[in-house]
Write a structure and sequence with these properties.
The chain has about 260 residues and is of the alpha/beta class. It has one domain (about 15-255): NAD(P)-binding Rossmann-like Domain (Rossmann fold, 3-Layer(aba) Sandwich), CATH 3.40.50.720. Helices cover about 45% and strands about 15% of the residues. It has a 7-stranded parallel beta sheet, with helices on both faces. It starts with 9 loop residues before the first helix and ends in an 8-residue tail after the last strand. The mean pLDDT is about 95.
């Protein structure tokens, strides 16, 4: 018997209908780009961040399929209370997108241990805490998706971002270890490694550094910055039934920069 889907099934296999996605750092940049695509694919999204006014603006744009919870995910004990609130309001989280992060542009010698730790807390510890908190319900259902936003700094050396690179590189180990632990029970764990995407974070990273921007574009085969939608649609694919046999993957969405010269 053929398992090839009919043409009528084509949109369905990429659908997120019936899914509830919690997206950290969802009010701006890549997180908002992911949220826009998830909503178009049929999911309900819950945006999480520290600035309620920013999240409210994003939810107003996204419409009735979006809600928000203003919370600092780096604070101890936040993960469990956050998920309890989301569960009471919209139900269990079936997709977790660990996207929240901060950028620090400093040389290693100028980066203090306190600054280094702050970056790790935001990217690594907070993401692990939320992942750990969301897993029991996913394991009980035998289904779920966990997605991390990695970086080009996860893949090769970039100067002046030692703390950020350490944090984003840690995601690779988390993704692979988690995938081996939980994928036998129906939960897929993946990451996207964005290239240089038009966003407030990119603008801050490139501010006053035209030579750096030109160098990046010269090494990007597609010779342009990406858009948040490029990341959003890749995230939609990885969390959809179309990617049902994909786990433990770090997918570069980068215009070819990671294979360019």
């Amino acid at each position: 018997m053929s398992t090839t889907p009919s043409p009528a099934a084509f949109p369905t296999v990429f659908s997120l209908a019936g899914q509830t996605a919690l997206i950290t750092g969802g009010g701006t940049g890549l997180g908002l780009g992911i949220a826009r695509c998830f909503v178009q694919a049929g999911a309900h999204v819950v945006l999480v961040g520290r600035r309620a006014e920013v999240l409210a603006t994003a939810v107003a744009e996204l419409g009735p399929a979006a809600t928000f919870v203003a919370r600092d995910i780096t604070q101890a004990g936040t993960a469990e209370t956050l998920l309890a609130e989301v569960r009471d309001r919209v139900g269990e989280v079936t997709i977790l997108v660990n996207n929240a992060g901060i950028h620090l542009k400093k040389t290693a010698v100028d980066t203090t241990p306190e600054e280094f730790n702050t970056v790790l807390q935001t990217h690594v510890v907070a993401a692990f805490s939320l992942t750990r908190a969301v897993l029991p319900a996913m394991l009980a259902r035998g289904a779920g998706n966990i997605l991390f936003t990695a970086s080009m700094a996860s893949l090769f050396g970039i100067p002046q971002v030692v703390a950020y690179a350490a944090a984003k590189s840690a995601y690779l180990g988390m993704v692979r270890t988690l995938a081996t632990e939980v994928s036998p029970r129906g939960i897929r764990v993946n990451a996207i490694a964005p290239g240089w995407i038009e966003s407030p974070m990119l603008q801050r990273a490139m501010a006053g550094d035209a030579p750096r921007a030109n160098k990046i574009l010269s090494r990007t085969p597609m010779n342009r910055w990406g858009s948040p939608a490029d990341i959003g649609w890749a995230a939609t694919y990885l969390c959809s039934p179309a990617a049902q046999f994909i786990t433990g993957v770090i997918l570069p969405v980068d215009g070819g920069v990671s294979i360019g010269f």
